[in-house]
Design goal:
353 residues, alpha/beta, TIM Barrel, 8-stranded parallel beta sheet, two-stranded antiparallel ribbon, 12% strand, globular
Length: 353
């Protein structure tokens, strides 16, 4: 792979091994998705953003019909993503729709919207070689439809991974109902990026306070706990899980998981501190909205720095401010690993620097 300034950035990027568009067909698709952005900025970029949201037209139409749309998703465009990436030195954004994805739709409609959205994302990535990677959306919680979309996403669209919610209604990722989906993802040694949402149990708990304030962080940690203490994450040992926002409230409750949970019923004698630590230490955690000193420095003490990956939460936050926050707290190789190398380890086609 050709590099720029010693960095494997945008010349091939995540998509370099795939059949990228050429000639007139490339120009045609590029026209649909706008200009490629600043060539100079792209050449200097090196970060990989694993937490970057997009709004495929089919998904946006479904949101609007259900009155679930919001200004950030309505106003999104590929050009705005590229602009943010160029300002923040992001070479490649691994993109996925945010909550609620397609959970509000019946099975057949969820499958259609997920399929059309994934096809759109693949075309957008092909129109901007190396700039976008694909975290495909699944029609969760519908298991049969998900299995079909997994096959299509990986075998036809060559997705880089899967983008999921942390819960679906009243079920978290460690629940047995989702085992067929995760067994297949485990067989494929997939990257599974997760984004928080609000569970059925926890809507409008505090009057006037939306779920983004507390519930998103709590739901991320609930999903982590469900995976570990159900034994699911041990079963899915070949899945590379990425949890948003530094694992949510994980740093605040870690000692409870490591000590209290393993020394009292029902888990005493069934799971050990070493097993809990092993799972916590193998998961990946992104930096979106946690690049402040209090959270990111605590996370870096709880888990190995090899497990922290760059995430911006665009369009809700920017890659530039995330990068600035990290640069205040980390230097040298550790910072470089956060910004690129840790994600590159689990994303085929991307090289570490």
């Amino acid at each position: 792979m050709t590099t720029t300034n010693g960095c494997a950035c945008c010349d091939a990027g995540v998509l370099g091994r795939r059949g990228l568009l050429t000639g007139a067909s490339a120009l045609g698709v590029a026209g649909l998705f706008g200009a490629a952005g600043s060539a100079d900025a792209a050449a200097k970029a090196f970060r990989i953003d694993v937490h970057h949201h997009i709004a495929p037209p089919a998904w946006l139409d479904a949101l609007k019909a259900a009155k679930l749309d919001s200004p950030p998703v309505v106003n999104w465009s590929p050009e705005k993503s590229l602009e943010d990436m160029d300002k923040g030195g992001v070479a490649t954004a691994m993109v996925s729709p945010t909550t609620p994805q397609v959970t509000f739709l019946p099975a057949a409609e969820a499958a259609r919207v997920a399929r059309e959205s994934n096809e759109y994302t693949r075309k957008m990535a092909d129109a901007h070689p190396g700039r976008f990677g694909v975290f495909a959306m699944l029609p969760m919680p519908y298991v049969d439809e998900c299995l079909k979309e997994i096959a299509y996403a990986f075998d036809v669209l060559h997705a880089d991974g899967i983008g999921m919610m942390t819960s679906y209604g009243d079920k978290w990722l460690g629940y047995s109902e989702f085992q067929p989906v995760f067994d297949e993802l485990n067989r494929r040694k997939a990257v599974v990026y997760t984004h928080p949402t609000e569970a059925n149990c926890c809507v409008n708990l505090v009057r006037g306070i939306g779920p983004v304030a507390v519930e998103y962080g709590a739901d991320t940690t609930r999903s982590i706990v469900s995976l570990i203490f159900s034994g699911a994450s041990q079963r899915y040992a070949d899945i590379s899980f990425i949890f948003s926002h530094g694992g949510g409230v994980l740093t605040a409750v870690a000692e409870r998981l490591q000590i209290q949970m393993v020394t009292t019923p029902p888990f005493k004698g069934k799971i050990t501190r070493a097993q809990v630590d092993h799972e916590l230490n193998r998961f990946f955690y992104d930096t979106a909205q946690v690049s402040n000193a209090l959270t990111i420095e605590t996370l870096a003490k709880l888990v190995p720095t090899s497990q922290i990956v760059f995430g911006s939460d665009f369009p809700y936050r920017t890659s530039e401010e995330t990068a600035a926050g990290l640069a205040k707290r980390f230097k040298g190789r550790v910072l470089q690993d956060f910004e690129r190398n840790n994600a590159a380890r689990i994303l085929p086609g991307v090289k570490r620097v």
